[in-house]
User: Fold these one by one.
Assistant:
Number 1:
Amino acid sequence: MSRSDVLVDADWAEAHIGAPGVVIVEVDEDTSAYDKGHIPTAIKLDWKKDLQDPVRRDFVDKTGFEALLSERGIANDDTVLLYGGNNNWFAAYAYWYFRLYGHDKTLLLDGGRKKWELDSRELSTDVPDRPKTSYVAKDQDSSLRALRDEVIAAIGKRNLVDVRSPDEYTGRLLAPAHLPQEQAQRGGHIPTAKNVPWSKAANEDGTFRSDDELTQLYQSEAGLDFGKDTIAYCRIGERSAHTWFVLHELLDQPNVKNYDGSWTEYGSLVGVPIEIGDGR
Amino acid sequence: MSADGCGAPAGGVSVSAATGTQAVVEGRVVHAGAPVATGYARLLGTGDEFVAEVPLGDDGGFRFFAAPGSWTLRVLAPGGLRAERSVEADYGHVTKVDVSL
């Protein structure tokens, strides 16, 4: 993979509105933004209602993913262009998710909804009616996803990247500062994890920084050993999907996993080591 | 919007979801006398370190749940409009910051 294989700009998206074989998908946690206006022809996916199991804390399974995409009118050979708010966090999560279930023709819109809005590009309230398909997913690709025991075993051995804000990393905040701070969990980070906030990988308009800037950020500034395997985490796995996208898709690092259990799981486990403060 | 996810709802989470233990920073953004409904408010920490961002609400509103201390608020809107304000937050206080672009 390289940048041009996975990331497109707003001009590309605008030129492919309504193009056969291209499905534009807005993904967010709060889909009211889609309802007020979205890129013309885009359909929506709700990060929680559509992509998470309603009972267990896990994804929808393969059968559920197949049913979802079939119902939304996405076919196996369609190119799926994902975008969303929150600087593409949830779109990057959906991108990772589509890759987990083997959808290869998946693209991310650089800058997402924010860049589109700041450019004053067209938004539509028309909801497209796509004919149903018979989507067939592959088995989940476990090489892209880290579970908790693997994370604990990786302490001091692999690169661990905590992509939350420095205040969450040190334990000063338990959630991003746009959310209330009461959480039944401990603050801090996984020992040996480097703190490289997701936001350092993005420009102010939500677009990704250049490959050279990103390499400088992770390798030179944060001291990540690109010869080692890497696990990225945040609070619930969507900001770290953004960093997974940078490391695995843009910078073509081979063994990068997203730990979607992230701090809400790790910070609530009994008996695991936690480090507080700046970790240096 | 619950705190189950990490998403930033337009205008910020309702203050009724907060308690007196929160350090709230909130306000409205206006341009030429009208609310700016399309735009973003960013909260920056020491050294302009990004902390959080919310899309503005229909009334131009935003809200953050910070920690006590000094913060920078930056607003971005279409047409290259932007503004920056220094704010102080503390637990149990709602710090109001209204911004005119």
Note: Residues 6 and 52 of chain B are 10 Å apart (CA to CA).
Number 2:
Amino acid sequence: MPIDQSFVGRVYPPTAPYEVGREKIREFADAVNDPNPVYRDPAAARALGYDDVIAPPTFAIVMTLPAGHQVIDDPELGIDYSRVVHGEQRFVHSRPVRAGDVLQVVVTVDGIRAAAGNDLVTTRADVTTVAGEPVLTAFGTLVARGKA
Amino acid sequence: MTAIAVGAELPAQDFPIVRGDLVRYAGASRDFNPLHWNERFAKSVGLPDVIAHGMFTMASAIRVVTDWVGDPGAVIEYSVRFTRPVVVPDPEGATLHVAGAVRAIRDDGLVEVDLTCTVDGQTVLAKARALVRVPESQRESM
């Protein structure tokens, strides 16, 4: 059964604050095999005008993916996680994530549509500092494959 | 490099991916879906073998842009569509090939880049696109 369109616009509560640490950024940069010093060396980051090391462009997924599980796990939407694949991902940055940021994520159901027997659910994750400064928005489209 | 112009190519790169990369990415990203490390599980759901995290592929591909522009914080937007799983057999792995080209230069100076992401000649990320702030001082020298 297709997912009900009326869930579009549903907003979930802000996630617990996530404190971005230098070592987590380094770990993530190592894990994507990216040697750029701006992810590791505060002096290299300062040379580019940043207060501290910045994170790679997709780093926020460490926060937004778990936050998005609020949608997948929402019993009212009835998504079968075992049939979900990641269809699309988009990041829109106001500024890079940097070490020392304390961030929270507010997830909204941005869109629901049916295509080729599958349900496509787009989630919007607004990432801000706990003080309310916008940092980025991540849009993820989940494809819930229809049952054969 | 010559001045940025529509159609200008970014230096292409090859990214080898082996099973250990996926285990490390799972830990760093906290995405422990067994599709990305457990061959038995991957095969049980009809895949030929373990597949890379889409987000690992996405993170790898943007390096063609960040290495080109120098400042990764200049990437304002980045989007992809995951079209085909990257199968990572052990021990041989897979090689992601990423090429980039300037799609458009906006009136505000922001540069749109299209990325072409293939494994064995087959597209794995479609509509891979970045919007980049290129400092004015660098525009002529790139």
Note: The first strand of chain A starts at residue 18 and ends at 19.
Number 3:
Amino acid sequence: MMFKLNLSILLLLLCSVNTMAQDPRLLLNKVLVKLSQAKNYKAEINISVDLPYIKMMPINTKLYFKQKDKFKIDTKSIAILPKQGFLQLNMLLTDTANYTAIQQNQQVLNGVKTSLINLLPNNDTGDIVLAKLWVDAKNQVIIKSQLTTKSSGTIITEYTYGLQLAYGLPDVIKFIVDVKKFKIPKVLAGDLNTTKSKKVEKSSGEIVVILKNYEVNKGIPDSTFQ
Amino acid sequence: MLLKSTYNELIKIAYKPRSFIGIGGLIIIISIVLFAMKVDGDLYISLITGQFEQSLTFEGTILNGNLIAFIIIQMLIIHVPLLIAFVTGDLVSGESAMGTIRLLLTKPVSRSTILLSKFLASCVYTLVVILCLVFMSFVLGKILFGTGDLMVLKSDGLIIFQEGDINWRFFYGFAIAFLSLITVATLALTLSCFSENSIGPIVATMGIILLFTIIGSMDVPIFDNIRPFLFTTHMAAWRYFFDDPLNTTNILYSVAILVIHIVVLLAIAFYKFNKKDILS
């Protein structure tokens, strides 16, 4: 009797794991449901840029988001973000008819067991060619993504979660972006006295966004985004 | 005596219409630039950021008073010396041409004091031009375009300075620009001591500036040994204050080269003026 019960539980577990493994959409839906719990939020953010050809100090500013796609960084300072940044992945995930999700193997990233899911767009008119997602099935959040785009090359994004894990909102987002070689004539730039600069070896760099003091679902007027 | 003599020289400058042509030209040129940037500034910005826009987005107000001031100084620092030479190249030769130099040198003041007063007067005029440049670019630019971070375009990338880190850079930048314009004023004054008419020193000063600027901007190895010693190379030294990290060695070297030029040119001017034959 006991053996039959154990076998049933084992079969049930295997079945559920198998279902998850074979249907990555189920997992992605759970991620989306979690993300959609945050109807709106604002957060204080710190942006640090370490890119070839660009020098700037970190800046502190505020980020506003409202479902479905309202997004604003309220800054008087100059802030640099990846073009395929905060919204594009969410937009892709939301439009479930637009992509095919393929479950890959499981990987451990920074001690977290993740499922690797590839998203292939169903049409070739969009900018995203391939999206790879490393999803923490336990917490139903994306730990890492790799977007391959037509316009911006490859953007790798790593998410670290903390206090807002319940909403699937990260505390730290690290973008790794490709940057094309920058060169303009000295005469145009006006720095005639510049001696030959060090050759920049890197072709990619990092933008790290630290988010804190979230205010989730407190309401944000639409006028904020105008 | 020196102060009184300098005051007299300033009065002479103030009464010459050509003294206001330079300042008037400066105001007109900067007004045109401000208007153009107000109308089509975003297009200019996209030229700067365009190379990054495939992978990055820029948030915030890039087109602001600080950027406008930077662009204007960069555009005009090559041309303002011509306006300075227009006035200072006339200080001695103009008096020779009109014959007033004889009257001037009959005063119980040494020739050196007279020349020094002319030099000081040209410094004051240069300061007025610089202050005009500061007001039109920095103050008016901020009134019209607001403030914000400064994005500096370099041939090999961008540097973004935060708003609180900008004013002191402009202050020292303008100070270096002032020093470089004093060098031009001294050159014109020195050439003026050699001439009996106004046109010669002015044209010669312009010619020297153009020649040195061309040599300085040509990326040809043969000029590599000459370039560091040309004063025109160091007229762009104000840009060193918009480097990160600050290259103090380059700044001090530029200041030294400019000061050496001023001292040497003044020495030549004093020698020539003291030996000048005013009877023929």
Note: Chain A touches chain B through 42 residues (CB under 8 Å).
